Every structure is written in structure tokens, then in C-alpha cells.
Amino acid sequence: MESFKNLKETCYAANMELPKLDLVVYTFGNVSVVDRKQGVFAIKPSGVPYETLRPADIVIVDFDSQVVEGSLRPSSDTKTHAFLYRHWEHIGGICHTHSTYSVAWAQSQQDIPVFGTTHADHMTQDIPCAPPMADHLIAGDYEHNTGQQILDCFHTKGLSYQEMEMVLIGNHGPFTWGKDAEKAVYNSRVLEEIAKMAYLTRQINPNAPRLKDALIQKHYERKHGSGAYYGQGC
Amino acid sequence: MESFKNLKETCYAANMELPKLDLVVYTFGNVSVVDRKQGVFAIKPSGVPYETLRPADIVIVDFDSQVVEGSLRPSSDTKTHAFLYRHWEHIGGICHTHSTYSVAWAQSQQDIPVFGTTHADHMTQDIPCAPPMADHLIAGDYEHNTGQQILDCFHTKGLSYQEMEMVLIGNHGPFTWGKDAEKAVYNSRVLEEIAKMAYLTRQINPNAPRLKDALIQKHYERKHGSGAYYGQGC
Amino acid sequence: MESFKNLKETCYAANMELPKLDLVVYTFGNVSVVDRKQGVFAIKPSGVPYETLRPADIVIVDFDSQVVEGSLRPSSDTKTHAFLYRHWEHIGGICHTHSTYSVAWAQSQQDIPVFGTTHADHMTQDIPCAPPMADHLIAGDYEHNTGQQILDCFHTKGLSYQEMEMVLIGNHGPFTWGKDAEKAVYNSRVLEEIAKMAYLTRQINPNAPRLKDALIQKHYERKHGSGAYYGQGC
Amino acid sequence: MESFKNLKETCYAANMELPKLDLVVYTFGNVSVVDRKQGVFAIKPSGVPYETLRPADIVIVDFDSQVVEGSLRPSSDTKTHAFLYRHWEHIGGICHTHSTYSVAWAQSQQDIPVFGTTHADHMTQDIPCAPPMADHLIAGDYEHNTGQQILDCFHTKGLSYQEMEMVLIGNHGPFTWGKDAEKAVYNSRVLEEIAKMAYLTRQINPNAPRLKDALIQKHYERKHGSGAYYGQGC
User: Which of B23, B119, B172, D73 is nearest to A28 (CA)?
Assistant: First the structure.
């Protein structure tokens, strides 16, 4: 039982960032963190408010979404997390919220255009909005199919999950991921800021152009390219 | 006098949530909680700021809005609360605020369309906006008639108060309710968030479609249906 | 020197409410409070940040805006305050801010329409926006003329300063007043909330109608009429 | 090594204002402060979060952007700061953020019109938005060229850096400056407020006129002119 203690604490800490960053109200969100050696991931229990959440409440499940340890039911979105961990071997954490501006874009069923360098500092493409699923998929294994929906969206648009670490599920909200849970949460916060900036930009100038290619490449490269000089290189 | 001590404290605690959740400024709101066995409900006194409100200030009134205990005048909206408790036997608490985005939709005299799963996680219908009352009803027993206005709106639209636990009063603001005062307050906070998301959605995409029926049903069922798997089932 | 101690402390306390209520950044605002028996009023010194303001910094000036006590220069808006105290004998405090939504309406040179009961709970008319002054008045005794501009606006629109306790100066921002400094600050906070609600209402429904007369009268009367039943009657 | 202790602490304190003023999330911003006698400036290290930043982390660089003292890599925007210090001899501090409303205007590629006295209290001109750079300049010495872009923008528009202490870089975000780091940060906060007010003004009234010249001059002169009577004259 002690073997998952660190995993639970990491998962707990990442979940507790969400209310601090104003990304959730009540129980509207969840973060998971994977341990690939043991073939499990830790995830928030379903419907438990952040104010009362404790590290011991975190649920350990395997990649088939079966509970390995924990007395509570895992997040209702667990199968979507499991699907992504199975298919994307380089991600270490996943975050899902209903943050306000990200949801507004998802409900608008529109990609978020790359309007500026705040966006380009993190990725070179528009943030994709996956279209709503067909009715038989919704009625079927819904959360599993949500994972498939994300994969299909990335395939159709030719996106790499290692370069684009976020997606909007049409009419639902954002999923983000990263090398660990902390990065997944960071990406949710960044997405919400970019979503708000893009919203305001469109309101001020409905014809605001996408950022020019040279600037997209420059800002992405200085932070993520082989000659990157942003950050401390660690 | 001691018999209502718990009822007052529950009512006090629920009222004090409103400023914490940024749903009120000054005295713009009130929560009540009912004790059906004793045929009374507890409600905030009128015009008392939250900063100075004490549990002993809470007023106990009967279903005819007559004061049973308390030295202060009850909320000016007391008759609306009494009306709803009389007609809807399964509700335990009622909350009224002037929260910003909910009021904006009420002033726009528009229902809030179900644009996404945040909405569908809580109800399957658009959030109704009751039309303004006829002049003779306004000039008459106004707060009583506001209760009637809510009932008429639910009748006209074929809504169930146990499934749709909120309403906008046209040009005024929201009333929400639930099995207890805590749930009523929760519904006010959720309504404000949904109202903001719907506002932003319309600004980004004036032609944003309502959520498709399959998704409405799926999200509502997974949280509230017989096979619900959201939350801890308690 | 001790004679103005209470007046200064009242003025200080009212000024310190402004940053708490998110109505000002840095030095963008000022509150004054009058002592009509002594023929003076207390006002915030010019350009002093709220973080470092002390009660002893408050300046006492007479109705000709001459400093009676205090080592600092009074607010640059002092002559506007003096003008209003001279002409409106029943006001006890005045508040001026550059709060965001109120300024946006002032910069739009539009009255704020009465869209709902939050507005009607406080006044029955649209909140007036005074037009910009003629150039020779701006170049002249500007702050004195700002007072005249307010008076002219109320005269032209047939408004009573005892019923409408707020105004927008076109392209500048709001002035509010009341029986004391606390009420003047309260009115600034209420104005900002009404300004935000009206902004959102127009965005959702550009054709949103003004509140019907019966509701305007009802809400105003229940709070301020001879048979008022809102509040504790004290 | 002790010679730069004060410079580092001043720079640290100014940087720490940014999260307090809600102008940055994570590492999205940087402030520098110059010591012209020693020919160096202090600047935030690149990619270090504000929560963990310490005074000792601040990097000292010369006007050629070479590190003079410090074990961390300086901000990726260091060359832009160096360029401005070299060309504008009267500035003592520079601040760069990605604050939300300022970025939205930058992404809209529009100057912020002077709509009111909040703006005119600080400057008489529209806040300029520098156009995006040519591709070969982006691919070249980008941060150096960003400085040149600012200079060219001021030259083209006939602006003085001592009167207009801020600029928007098209598609990127704001740079502000002043006599010291504290003033530079102050200008970033003021810019964000003006940007939000101007945004709201345009939404309420798409045809809102610029402030008339007489008011622009009056407000600027009473704060900055030879006969200024705003503030305490120190």
C-alpha cells in the first residue's frame, strides 16, 4: 500500500493547483499522473470537492481503468485518461478542467487561432477543437470514445501530441497533458490565458490576422528549438 | 427559543457562502432553509450586510410569511420563498442573488441555451427566463406574485422543479433551490458560471448551436440517471 | 487641531474602502466628508497612494477650497467637491473614482439605461452622463466648472440630487454622493455593478428594453417609499 | 560582488510587483533597472517563476547584454532592454509583461485611442502599436531588432519617449519604461487599465470619439505641466 504513496501525493498536489489557479469551481476538474513502470496512474476521485480532498483519497487505476488501490470511485473521465496514456507513451500527466474561456471556445466549436507570441511561445499551430462525436459513440463507451475523438482530431489535423499539448473537446472543455502532472496543469493555465486573449482580440478586431509564420517559428524556436535560449536549459 | 437554533445556524452558514463565492455585494441576496415538520423556514433579515450578520439575526417565519421568532424584519423577498415552499414540497432551501452574469441574461429577457456539457451535467433544458409580470400583478402582492410567475413559467415550458432547480426572473435576477440550502447556493454558483460561459460563447460565435441531444442525455444520465457513475453515490 | 480629528478619521476610513472594493488603482480616486456646522470638509490629499495614506494626511478645506488644516495639497478635484457641497445642502459625502465599467460608459458618452431591478432598487431614472464641457470652460477654472457641468446636467434632465445620487462626467468618470461618506462610497460600488450589468445586457441583447415603469416604481417604492418594507427601517 | 546588491534588490522588488498587480502568470514578464554610472543593468533571469525568485538570482549585464555578474541566464528579452537603455538616456527602468488586455490590443494591431481623462492624465497621444517586423529582421538578431522596431515606431509617429512611456509590440505585448523601475511597473499597470477601459468603450459605443483636444491638454497639464497642481510636487 505504501508503494503508491508518492504517486498519490504528486497527484494530490497537482489537483490542488486547480482551485488556486482559478481553473475550477466545486468538483469541475481532475488531474492524473502516471507510473509507467508499475502500469498504473493516480487520479482524483469523482465528485469530491477540493476543500475536503486528501492525498489518501486519490485512486490508483490500471490502463484498463480498473481500480488497483483506493476506496473511492475514480473520476468519471478515467477512461479518457487511460486511453491517452495507452496511446501516447511520452506523457506523464493529464489535466481536465471546465475553465471559463476555454469552455467558451469549445462551445463555439472553433479552433483558437495563433494571434500572438504568447501562443507561439508554447506551440506553432492553432489549438484544435475536436468536433462533437457521432450519436452512437456518445451512447456507447463515451469516455473511451472521447479519447478516440482526441486521437482522430490530432490525426486529421496532422498534429503531434508532443508539440501540441492541449485540445478542446467541442461543447465540453479542455484536456491538456505534458511530461508530468505539473506541466499538464501549467498547460491548462496557459490555455485559459491564451483563450481569453484570443477572445478579446476578436472582439477588438474581428479581422485580426493570424501571427505571421516568421514570428511563429522564431518564438517557438527560442523556447523549444535546438538553439533555445529561453529559460535555464534544465 | 432554542428549538430553531440549528435551523438558524444552517441558514446563517448558507448565507455567508454568498459573499465568499462572489455572488453578492452588500445586501444583494438571501438564502432560506425550511423545517417542514415545524412548518417554518429561516431566512436572512432584510438589508443587513453580510459583514455584520450573526446567526441570532436570522428570522423564523411560517408559510404565510408571518414572523415566528426574531426581532428583525425578514427579507423583502420572503413571500416568494414562502410561495415556493408551499407549492414545491420537495425543496429544502432557496437562494436569491443579483449575481452579475445571471442578471445580465435576466435583463436581456432570454433563456440561457444549453451550449455545453457544464450545463448538461446539471440539467437537460435551457435555463428559463420568466417574462415580466403584468402591471396589476406588480402593483398588487408583488413578492407573492413573483412566486406565481415562477410557477406559471415552469408550467408553460413543461419544466419540473426537481430537474430544473433554477430560474431567471426577467429584468430582476436568479432564484435557485434544492434539497437543502447548501444545494440551493451551489446551484446559484453553477448558474453564474454557466451564464458567463454562455455569454462568451455567443460573443465568439453568434450562431453557436445548442448541444446535441445525445450529449445532453449522456451527461445528465451519467450524473443523475439510474446508472449514474459520477460522484461517490452517496 | 484636535477639533477635526473625527472628521479626518471618517474621511480616511471612507477612502480606504475604495481599494478594498476594487474601485481604484494607485491614486485614482478620492472621498470627502463635510462638517456643515464648521463650514469645512475633509478630503484625500492629492497623489498619495492608499497603501501609505494615514488619517493625519487628510486635508481640511473650506467651501472656497482654501486649506484650513493639513500640510499636504488637497485632491486636484477639490473645487468640484466644494461646488457640490455649496449647491446641494443635503449631501454629507462625495466620492470620485475611475472605476472600470463606469469610466467605459462615461467614455462612451451614454446614459446607463435602467435595465433591471438592481438599478431600480436605487433610483428610477437612467444614470446621467454629462456631456463634455465647452473648450473655454475647460481652459478656465476646470474643476469648478466640472461642478457646474454636473448641476447643468441635472437641471437639463430634471433630476433631483437627492434621488439620483450619481453622475458620469463624459470622457472622465463617476462622481457619487449621499448623506454621508459611507453612502457616497456605497453608491460608487453600486454604480460600478450596475454599469457592468448594463454593459453585459447590451452585449447579449442590443435591443434589450428599459425596465417597464410599473417595476421601476415598485422596486423603488419598496425600498424608499413611504410604505417601504426593505431593510430595518432605521 | 557586493557592489550590485542594492541594484539587485531594487530589480527583485520591482519584478515581484508584477504578480501582485495581476500583470503576469508564471514567468511571463520581466523588469530591469539601470545603473548608468557603472554601465550595467539588473534584469530578471529567464524562465524563473516569481514564487521561487530570490534577489541573488537577478542577473547583472552590460549594455552589450554580456553577463557581468550572476550564475543564471538573463531574460530572453535582454537585448531589447539593452537597446532601449543605449538609445534613451533618461530612462531608469523597463518593464515587459503579457498582461491580458494590453496583449489583446497588440494582437489586434491597433493603437489604443485616447478615449478619456484616465489616459490623458498620463499622456496626450494614442498608445502606439508597433507593426510586426519584416521577416529578415525576425530571423536575424530578433530581440535587438525589437528595440529598433520600437525606436522606428516612435520616430514615424513623432513621439517622445519621455512623454509616451509605453508601447505595444504588434502581436506580442507591451513594453513600458520610466525614470526608475517602480515607474516602469506603474506604467504597465496603468496601461492594462487603460487598455481594458478602451476595450469596453469600443464595445459599448463603436463610434466613441477620441477625447477632445482641450481636455487632453488640460488633464495632462494639471499633472505634468509647469503649473501642475496634481500630487505633492515632489
Answer: B119
Helices (H), B109-162: 117-120, 135-139, 142-157
Three cell numbers at A63? 490502463
- Note the pLDDT of residue B162: 97
Whose CA is closest to D80, among D148, D14, D154?
D148
Q: How far apart are CA B126 and CA B113, in angstroms?
A: 5
Cα–Cα distance for residue pair C90/C113, rounded to 1 Å: 26
The chains in contact with chain A, meaning 3 or more Cβ pairs closer than 8 Å, are B, D
pLDDT digits (tens, 9 = 90+) for B65-87: 999 999 999 999 999 999 999 99
Residues D183 and A140: their CA atoms lie apart, in Å, by 60
- pLDDT recorded at residue C227: 84
Quote the strand ranges of chain B, DSSP E. Answer: 29-35, 40-43, 59-62, 67-69, 93-97, 129-130, 166-169, 174-178
Backbone φ and ψ of C226, nearest 5°: -65, -30
| D111 noted as active-site residue | no
pLDDT digits (tens, 9 = 90+) for D169-188: 999 999 999 999 999 999 99
Residue D180 distance to chain C (closest CA, Å): 17
Query: Does the beta-carbon distance from B205 to A110 stay under 8 Å?
Result: yes
Grid coordinates representing D97 are 509583461
Chain D residues whose C-beta sits inside 8 Å of any chain C C-beta: 115-118, 186, 189-190, 193, 196-198, 200-201, 203-205, 208-209, 211-212, 214-215, 218, 222-223, 229-233
**Can you say how many angstroms the Cα of residue B194 is from the centroid of all Cα atoms in its chain?**
14
Which domains can be identified in chain A, with CATH numbers? 2-223 (3.40.225.10)
DSSP type of residue B165: -
- Write the single-letter amino acid at A110: Q
- Count how many residues are written for chain C: 234
- Of all residues in chain B, what percent carry a pLDDT higher than 90? 90
SS3 state at A156: helix
- Cβ-Cβ contacts under 8 Å, A205 against chain D: 108-110
| Structure confidence at residue C229 (pLDDT) | 84
Higher pLDDT, B222 or C102: C102
- Confidence (pLDDT) at B231: 85
Cβ atoms of residues B161 and B177 within 8 Å: yes
List the catalytic residue out of A111, A121, A152, A180: A121
Residues 6+ apart with CB under 8 A from B151: B83, B87
pLDDT band with cut points at 50, 70 and 90 for residue C230:
confident
DSSP state of A209: P
Rounded CA-CA distance A83/B41 in Å is: 50
Rounded to 5 degrees, φ, ψ at A38 are -90, -5
What ipTM describes this predicted complex? 0.95
B94 bridge partner residues: B32, B177
Q: With bands split at pLDDT 50, 70 and 90, how would you rate the model's confidence at A229?
A: confident
State pLDDT tens for residues B45-56.
999 999 999 999
- Select from B40, B169, B9, B13 the least CA-distant residue to B99: B169
* Contact residues for A196 (Cβ-Cβ < 8 A; gap 6+): A101, D100
Are A193 and D46 inside 8 Å of each other by CB? no
B98 CB neighbours in chain C (<8 A) are 118, 193
Q: Is the confidence at residue C97, as pLDDT, over 90? A: yes
pLDDT digits (tens, 9 = 90+) for D22-65: 999 998 999 999 999 999 999 999 999 999 999 999 999 999 99
pLDDT at residue number C234: 53
A189·D25 Cβ contact <8 A = yes
Smallest Cα–Cα separation from A154: which of A143, A166, A141? A166
pLDDT > 90 in chain D, percent: 90
Q: Which residue has the cell 524563473?
A: D48
Strands A129-130 and A166-169: parallel
> How far is it, in rounded angstroms, from Cα A147 to Cα C197?
39
